[in-house]
Design brief:
2 strands; membrane; about 350 residues
Length: about 350
């Protein structure tokens, strides 16, 4: 990863100082650095749905269709555990205790398949610092399928990427499970990300996690349900594909949307301060809707999360209005759309990046 230096604009620094002061004043007296009742209720709700549906898979009377439906519910609700518990735990905002956060983080990702420690390291050490900066934000690294940034090389196939992207997105989670995780673990290219973490501990956690994951999603169903192994495996892959699509729908447009900034620094220097950089590169969707926060674990309030990652996501509803008002007052960007608008914006962006002149 290439480290960059943010602009030291006094005007932008003043904006963030005022914003922080207003947010802290609004939340004064509340324990916002760890989970509250709403946080635990929501996370435990999805945990109950996830493992309750998982238990139903082993009923003797279950039909093939019902097995598939229940398996999809198991996978989707498992993803929502990751959104509700795992994301906050990676930022140490679930518990006050760092070790407790690490344990919750591990178990919150069990049905997703992406190694939680590796994901957490790249999420915090790369993405949260340098969102949308080529060579510094892993999430925007070049990939063989899609051109997501004007900094990526154009190829003729990209003319059609807005049409084939949904099929790519269906395999995003599976690609992470079977390929990306292993590359992040073993490639020396990502040693900067793993710095300060014991290699032995990293490998041990990785393999223990993968054993837990594959035992849960494949081995136990293969051993204890009455359907053929081929049906169980097909169910796993199709449910994972469906879950992956939902995962991408909720997240991909929060940074890859029409109007997002993809900074190309001059030398080592970025155009804006860290805080304003987050606003130029992030998009909220339905940030004022409780149902959206319930499903996404606050990921729909992307500006709030990037600006205040040490505040538990159940508090975002109280600070979104402050962000909107303060950005307007100081003439800073704030991108907010409905989920549908964000997805249309994402595909407009894909279409634009499919142009060789973009």
């Amino acid at each position: 990863m290439k480290a960059k230096y943010f602009n030291k604009s006094e005007e932008e620094k003043l904006f963030f100082a005022v914003l922080k002061n207003r947010v802290h004043k609004k939340l004064e007296g509340k324990n916002v650095s760890h989970g509250d009742f709403k946080f635990w209720f929501k996370g435990l709700f999805w945990t109950f749905v996830c493992y309750g549906s998982y238990a139903l898979l082993f009923l003797d009377s279950i039909s093939k269709l019902n097995f598939w439906i229940v398996y999809v519910i198991f996978q989707l609700s498992g993803l929502l555990i990751g959104f509700s518990f795992g994301h906050d735990a990676s930022h140490n905002t679930a518990f006050k205790n760092k070790k407790a956060n690490s344990i919750l983080h591990f178990f919150s990702f069990l049905t997703v398949g992406i190694d939680p420690l590796l994901w957490g390291l790249r999420h915090i050490r790369s993405h949260h610092l340098y969102a949308n900066v080529e060579g510094s934000d892993i999430d925007i690294d070049k990939n063989p399928f899609l051109r997501l940034s004007p900094t990526h090389a154009w190829k003729p196939k990209h003319k059609y990427q807005a049409y084939y992207a949904p099929f790519v997105y269906m395999f995003t989670l599976l690609h992470s499970v079977f390929m990306s995780d292993w590359i992040y673990l073993f490639s020396e290219e990502y040693d900067w990300m793993k710095r300060g973490v014991s290699k032995a501990g990293l490998y041990f956690r990785f393999f223990i996690y993968k054993v837990f994951y594959f035992s849960l999603v494949l081995v136990l169903p293969l051993l204890y349900v009455d359907f053929s192994w081929s049906f169980v495996v097909i169910t796993y892959f199709t449910a994972s594909a469906f879950t992956s699509l939902v995962f991408i729908i909720m997240l991909v447009g929060t940074h890859f949307f029409d109007g997002a900034d993809y900074p190309q620094p001059e030398g080592e220097f970025l155009e804006h301060t860290w805080a304003v950089h987050q606003l130029y590169t992030s998009c909220d969707w339905n940030a004022d809707k409780g149902w959206a926060r319930f499903l996404s674990g606050g990921s729909n309030c992307h500006a709030a999360h990037h600006l205040f990652p040490n505040i538990c996501h159940t508090n975002y509803s109280e600070i979104n209005e402050i962000i909107e008002e303060t950005t307007k007052e100081y003439q800073q960007p704030y991108h907010h759309k409905t989920l549908l608008q964000m997805m249309f914006s994402h595909f407009r962006h894909l279409n634009k990046m499919g142009n060789s002149n973009a």
